[in-house]
Write a structure and sequence with these properties.
single chain; about 375 residues; alpha/beta; Rossmann fold; Dehydroquinate synthase-like, alpha domain; four-stranded parallel beta sheet; three-stranded mixed beta sheet; 14 helices; binds glycine
Length: about 375
């Protein structure tokens, strides 16, 4: 039997996060949604479709009138308005109306893009999230942030749109390549760092099982990680306040992602950004030196980078200015008071940011 967490909005049940290893349980969830006579469009990408497209379509076929699949080329470079347009055309050509349903089947790019299509097609159509990567299961499928990149800026165009259901089959984590897997793991470490020191310790204690992708440990890891995210987004669904804590590591992380032209994965950049944020927290005497080095070094056994080469620290600083996470002229920087307690700080100076970027910068020439 699948286990679930209920996410509330304004203290009322809004949607469930279901943890499962069986696609038939997705069909059972859908059969509760009264979709007989309705169409479903699975939106997915060219990496995920060959593995799960047909399996999922076959499992859910009995729940509705017809299942369609819209498949777009995988990659962050396709998370844009052109792909959104192609999806609209597909839905129009297949006569989708507002009572039909979209399913986002894939990683963060698929989930964010599908959610945006759902938020805007016919002024809003229901959608569910079926995340298949660790990053999407731990983070991006929960909380209703949807959108696409625009003109090189990440997630610059988007909307808040809550899914009707988040269904994660964590067996899918078994087919992820190592880099994808550990990239998603960075968001899980982040959840421990910002809100739950016990969970952070548990992750370190279960390192071996996490490497082995032991299913019972993966389930507990996801449930605990999703609990952190759920509690944050329930209190602040549209990021007026504390939801910004989830952006630990993202200001410098996004800037590095852009400076490296998306050659590094999002979670790898988040790990680098967390190290930089922990460094600033140490320099501002919020963390001790020991805590800083512990946080930094604990990314290493999980195959995540703590240094980056081939960037200009000054350029990365400049790129942090275009981050959306701003409050007027001030960047809303997320710092750590201790492991398990993050705070929003708008007083971080350019010099402090530059020093942190230099701390994580590996200068190849200087090290020749
Ligand atoms: N990934 C950060 C958030 O959902 O707010």
């Amino acid at each position: 039997m699948a286990e679930r967490l209920e996410v509330q909005m304004n203290k009322k049940p809004c949607y469930s996060i279901v943890f499962s290893t069986d696609w038939n349980e997705l069909a059972m969830e859908l059969s509760e949604m009264e979709l007989q006579g309705r169409k479903i469009c699975i939106i997915t990408d060219s990496n995920v479709d060959p593995i799960y497209g047909e399996v999922v379509a076959n499992a859910i076929k009995p729940c509705c009138k017809e299942v369609f699949r819209f498949v777009f080329p995988a990659g962050e470079e396709n998370k844009n308005l052109d792909t959104v347009r192609d999806a609209y055309v597909f839905l129009i050509q297949n006569h989708f109306d507002r009572k039909d349903l979209l399913i986002a089947l894939g990683g963060g790019v698929v989930g964010d893009l599908t959610g945006f299509v759902a938020a805007t097609y016919l002024r809003g159509i229901d959608f569910i999230q079926v995340p298949t990567t660790l990053l999407a299961q731990a983070d991006s499928s929960i909380g209703g942030k949807t959108g696409v990149d625009f003109d090189g800026y990440k997630n610059m165009v988007g909307a808040f749109k809550m899914p009707k259901l988040v269904f994660m089959n964590f067996e899918t984590l078994k087919t992820l390549d190592e880099r994808q897997y550990y990239s998603g793991f960075a968001e899980i470490m982040k959840h421990g760092l910002i809100k739950d020191a016990e969970f952070y310790e548990w992750l370190l204690e279960n390192m071996y099982e996490i490497h082995e992708r032991d299913l019972s440990v993966l389930k507990e890891m996801l449930q605990r990680s999703c609990m952190v995210k759920k509690l944050v987004v329930e209190r602040d669904p549209t990021e007026q306040g504390d939801r910004a804590l989830l952006n630990l590591g993202h200001t410098i992380g996004h800037a590095i992602e852009k400076a490296k032209n998306f050659a590094l994965f999002h979670g790898e950049c988040v790990a680098l950004g967390c190290v930089a944020a922990a460094y600033i927290s140490w320099k501002k005497e919020m963390l001790s030196m020991e805590e800083y080095y512990e946080i930094r070094d604990m990314f290493v056994p999980f195959c995540l980078p703590i240094t980056v080469d081939g960037i200009s620290p000054e350029e990365v600083l400049k790129l942090t200015k275009s981050d959306k996470k701003k409050d007027g002229d001030h960047i809303k920087f997320i710092l750590l008071k201790k492991i398990g307690k993050a705070v929003i700080d708008t007083s971080v100076t350019d010099d402090e940011i530059l020093a942190a970027i230099k701390e994580i910068y590996f200068d190849e020439e200087a090290n020749d």
